[in-house]
Amino acid sequence: MELLYRSTRGAKEPVTASKAILQGLAEDGGLFVPDSIPKLTCSMEQLAGMTYQETAYEVMKLFLTDYTEEELKYCINSAYDKKFDTDVIAPLAKVEDAYYLELFHGATIAFKDMALSILPYLMTTAAKKNQVKNDIVILTATSGDTGKAALAGFADVPGTKIIVFYPKNGVSPIQEKQMVTQKGDNTFVVGIHGNFDDAQSGVKAIFGNKELAKELDQAGYQFSSANSINIGRLVPQIVYYVYAYAKLLESGEIKDGETINVTVPTGNFGNILAAYYAKQMGIPIGKLICASNDNKVLYDFFRTGEYDRNRPFILTTSPSMDILISSNLERLIYRIAGADASKDQELMKALSEQGKYEITDKMRAQLHDFCGYYASEDETAKKIAKVYGDTGYVLDPHTAVASCAYEKYVADTKDKTKTVIASTASPYKFTRSVMEAIDKEKYGSMSDFDLVDELNKISGVDVPNAIEEIRTAPVRHKTVCDAADMEQTVKTFLGVE
Ligand SMILES: *Cc1c(COP(=O)(O)O)cnc(C)c1O
């Protein structure tokens, strides 16, 4: 049976998966959601014996029903290959009393690779299926990790161009270096004077500009998105929660049917929403613990039912979670409103006009799967130092935020359910924050790349390729613009005036 996707704001007829992926954002500004969440069709025992690629096929075939078996397997096998530095793709590390699901073994050492290494294949396949003649221009706002992962995925992919906007002063030095050294004739990287929310709002405004879309169409271009608002990002992320459960079962850490909890360091709410979808598919997940840093909008939301972005934007050592507008939350809002597009519209309008909205008690009652915790900068740094001191395992700051949240959850609830913590970045991506957390006095004055070598010494973990590559790579992208000039910058790049 064909699974169709409709906009959370409900204006238009539902579309196929491939069309939803091509479009990125729905025309009415809403996000595409599947009409229902399919149930897994094979047993847990079968899943336990599968490779990552086989698991991906079992999950994705249920969501992307208009892709043929051949197309889907081609996409999966092209994405999850030697770009990953381990055959298991997403290993689990048992450290103290939790299982860290390491999602950072791909080309750019952040979990964004899990979805962005397959998105270009899903998208170019979708373009072929739908007889699209235009070049696809991927427009992306990044808080640091999406940008590089999308650039790496789309660089030199025929029929595509990619433009990435990042907050000039809001990413780590290594994140910035990774992006501005990006190769590929179809890649453009721009720093903006502003924060991630400014970049994301600017991109959404460009998507919503019908005049511009017409001009581009005449020039042979159409936009799509590589942000997690694209359903083609979300579906591949469900896979690793299914896989993690199956691997815990295979290794005898859990029994078939045993409930696990999941803790996710959260920004745009994509990763944790994928875990929620995995639960709907039939994976026995109990609580979804949503971890925030000092930008704790989601923590407040889960406590009070009010989403309020009217607060200072705080730059932290976990920049990929420095977000006040979590786009994917809209998918959950739509669902708990009973797939009511007009309610969703009303709340999203309030968010854009007043910067806040409040959900009804009836909606709140459906949030019992979720709980929110947050960690301060100090708690995060202490966590990195403590886990390293006790076990030798080095956490990146995002994962450390999740680890703190998990610790607080257990202290509050005494719930000892086995827990998977999504480990979203390699510590090498945030070397300075990590090393200063471990010993500020010793490491505080060293250069970024000296710190890389020190991290290698203390952790015994090989320096990833992604880091070796940028040690000497020349800067290729130097454009910086104001948030207000993003549209003009896009036109200039594309030669559309
Ligand atoms: C993007 C990112 C997050 C946040 O994930 P969302 O899906 O946006 O909630 C957390 N940690 C790291 C390292 C990231 O790159």
Summarize the structure.
With 497 residues, this protein is of the alpha/beta class.
Describe the structure.
The chain is α/β, with parallel strands linked by helices and 497 residues long. The chain has a domain of 248 residues: Rossmann fold (3-Layer(aba) Sandwich). The chain is built from 22 helices and 15 strands. A 6-stranded mixed beta sheet has the order 3-4-14-9-10-13, sandwiched between helices. Strand 3 and strand 4 form a beta hairpin. It is globular. The N and C termini lie far apart (45 Å). Bound molecules: pyridoxal-5'-phosphate (PLP). The site of pyridoxal-5'-phosphate has 17 residues, from helix 12.
Instruction: Please mark out the parts with pLDDT under 50 across 5 or more consecutive residues, or reply none.
Output: none
At the first level of CATH, the class of one domain is Alpha Beta
* Count of runs of 4 or more consecutive helical residues: 22
Q: What strand line-up does the widest sheet have?
A: 3-4-14-9-10-13
Based on Cα principal axes, name the global outline. globular
What percent of residues are in strands?
Answer: 15-25%
Summing up helix and strand content along with how strands pair, one would put the structural category as alpha/beta
Helix content estimate: 40-55%
* Named CATH topology of one domain: Rossmann fold
Provide the residue-averaged pLDDT: 95
Bound molecules: pyridoxal-5'-phosphate
How far apart are the first and last residues' alpha carbons, in Å? Answer: 45 Å
CATH architecture of one domain: 3-Layer(aba) Sandwich
Q: In total, how many beta strands?
A: 15
**Main sheet summary:** 6 strands, mixed
Radius of gyration: 21 Å
InterPro entries: Thr_synth_N, Thr_synth_N_sf, Thr_synthase-like, TrpB-like_PALP, TrpB-like_PALP_sf
Protein name: Threonine synthase
Cofactor: pyridoxal 5'-phosphate
Keywords: Lyase, Pyridoxal phosphate
